[in-house]
Design brief:
Blueprint (H helix, E strand, L loop, with lengths): L25 H25 L4 H24 L8 H6 L2 H6 L5
Helix pairs in contact: 1-2
């Protein structure tokens, strides 16, 4: 959807914050949201770990672990604590994201 087709008074994506600034409290709220999502992913992974093991459980558990790590990385970006030069970041985070936050792509 193009930004000019949005009915909300707030523009979406990069158009809303072209200079990488955000309204007060927005980044803190985003960090809290990412933390909640990571907690949910970890809880679901623990539920799968307690179930009778199958190959599907193992794959889903690995996917949830990766999602949890990426959410933690996103929290780090919001709080300026993300290691954008780590091998894991280069492997699991898109090059465009790393470039935008100042990491090695």
């Amino acid at each position: 959807m193009a930004p000019d087709n949005i009915t909300s008074p707030v523009q979406a994506g990069a158009a809303a914050c072209a200079d990488d600034t955000a309204p007060a409290g927005t980044l803190a709220a985003l960090a809290l949201l990412l933390e909640d999502l990571r907690t949910d992913a970890d809880a679901l992974r623990e539920l799968l770990a307690d179930a009778e093991p199958t190959a599907l459980h193992a794959v889903a558990g690995d996917a949830l672990a990766l999602m949890s790590w990426r959410l933690a990385f996103g929290q780090g970006i919001v709080t300026d604590a993300a290691d954008t030069t780590s091998a894991a970041a280069r492997q699991f985070i898109g090059a465009a994201v790393l470039h935008h936050v100042g990491g090695a792509a």
